[in-house]
Amino acid sequence: MEVCERFREFSDRKRCIVCFPNTHEGEEPEAYAIFLALMRVHMGIMILAPDSEERFEPVYRDALKYHLQTIRHSRLFTSYVPVKTRVYFVEIPEAQGSFYSCADFCIPGGTLVGGHVDLGSPIIAGCPMILGPRVPDNARWKSLLESGGAVHGKSHTEIVELAYEWLKNPEDAKVCARKAQEWWYGGGREISG
User: Fold this and answer.
1) The whole model's pTM is what?
2) Mean pLDDT of 116-128
3) How many CB atoms lie within 10 A of CB 10?
């Protein structure tokens, strides 16, 4: 079964699928805050993928305090993710890149509190990106934003507003993803930064 088929009930019910890939130390609480704010206006599921194997268990245990139904990717024994699930926790490094194509958009790790940002994976997969307040301030990122290949939320509130606009107008998110690919393949990946 293709991985995105697991989320078919979410798509059928017009529920959002938000991906927080490659999250760094301290970013998961930010991701939960953004997701919970978004859930006040639009139901859905968060795909959460921490950046390193040694953080998987501590992040998972810490997430229990949010009392959101969570399924671990490695322990999903059914074909489909139950629609009551709020968090899909990806703790298999090789699987993390598989979820970009399932998501309505992603908020890449490293842009919420800082750190390395995997820019290529979401762009190549065609996943629209909302960049958080800690997006690097350099020529590469400025060029991407100027091309219209991503949007930048300078606060949690702005991120939620941008996300909500994309959920109301999904074609705008798709246009942004196409512009990111044009930027990437048109030389953007060569810009240092």
Assistant:
1) 0.94
2) 95
3) 23
